[in-house]
Amino acid sequence: MTMDIKTYNMIAPEGLAVFPPAMYRINQTDKPDALLIRSQDMHKTHFGTSVLAIARAGAGVNNIPLVEASSNGTVVFNTPGSNANAVKELIVAMLVIATRPIFSSITWARKLNGADVSLQTEKGKNHFAGTELKGKTIGVIGLGAVGSRVARAAADMGMHVIGYDPYISVEHAWRLSNDIPRAGELAEVLRSSDYVTIHIPYTEKNKDLITAKELQQIKKGAILLNYSRWGIVNEDAVVAALDNGQIKQYVTDFSSSKFIKRDDVIVTPHIGGTTIEAEVCGAKMAAQTLRKYLETGNIVNSVNFPTVEMEFASALRLTLIHRNVPNMVGRITTILAQEEVNIDNMINRSRDQIAYTMIDVAAIPAEKLKNLQAALLAIPEVIRVRALQK
Ligand SMILES: NC(=O)c1ccc[n+]([C@@H]2O[C@H](COP(=O)([O-])OP(=O)(O)OC[C@H]3O[C@@H](n4cnc5c(N)ncnc54)[C@H](O)[C@@H]3O)[C@@H](O)[C@H]2O)c1
Ligand SMILES: O=C(O)CC[C@@H](O)C(=O)O
Fold it and tell me: Which CDD domains match (predicted)?
């Protein structure tokens, strides 16, 4: 088996090294079996039905058309938590940068000259008094991989933390210690926080989560941080809230022409996950997840398919992507029975409109396998059938 992988964006070489050259070709065809991407806008990038899977090295998947991918039978993966520490560390830095005049003091100190620089420094430093984070309240919206780490770090710096995440996973709830209270409503967080930091995915539901109404509820003079995505915070509403003094500063990873040259907006160029460690971790995780799927059919860390794992112990594995409708298992196994193929092991899982079935069987002659695959694909609700040799 030789498979083709196509990459978009800069993928760390450590990730590409996960693909053995004897089995995989990288960027050698326009009809790849799988894609390995970062922020490439796949809504605007054509990917054909040859693409079995797309792995996103990173957390956000709003750059991938998930509904279209599911209906093509394309499994989409991300790398949960791979860059969460990088974002957390940047948030800690941005909280301090927003709170103390670090850049202006450095710029001033650089301009000094003469033999008495140290004296001038001591004299001038009073212009650069900041405040401390300790004792202030921070609202953390979204308590997943990033938000739960930010909440912990803020608490460790002596901040009062209020979390808000109505959909928190059991795993992340466990990670969050009991000393971090959780609010039942967004307004509660906005009302009482000196800093509000947002760590949620961009989805239709989260579009414009923070707009004029929410910015009216926010504590006067608060600092708002958005290291999640464009579109979650309404830019016009932010500009208005800065102009009328409702918020003191907006700190974001997502640039806009509306923010250029504003002293009360700090923009970083989407570098939340841009550390060597996070890029290596994300690329390796994405590549390993792709290999697992391509070679065994097992699915982990998918954002549009169920998690499905079964030990690959037989000579042949059939994987079927199909619509999630009643009696599919019955129809599939009937065809196997008609073809006189005995099932060694089988698993079926579903997620929303899509379902996935893996069936392990003993070796089958090539012609018989071809007929079996054709018969399975002829079931109208079946989208894709693969046969994997162990
Ligand atoms: N700036 C960057 O470079 C960078 C890096 C990593 C992640 N991100 C962004 O941050 C997002 C979060 O990353 P993560 O790794 O923590 O993801 P995650 O999936 O681990 O956590 C997201 C959390 O947000 C919660 N949530 C969803 N909608 C919510 C809402 N309306 N209110 C409150 N909580 C809500 C979910 O329940 C989940 O717990 C990503 O989707 C991505 O868009 C940006
Ligand atoms: O690939 C990147 O650098 C961005 C990553 C980040 O936005 C994410 O969603 O994980």
Answer: ACT_3PGDH (cd04901), PGDH_like_3 (cd12174)
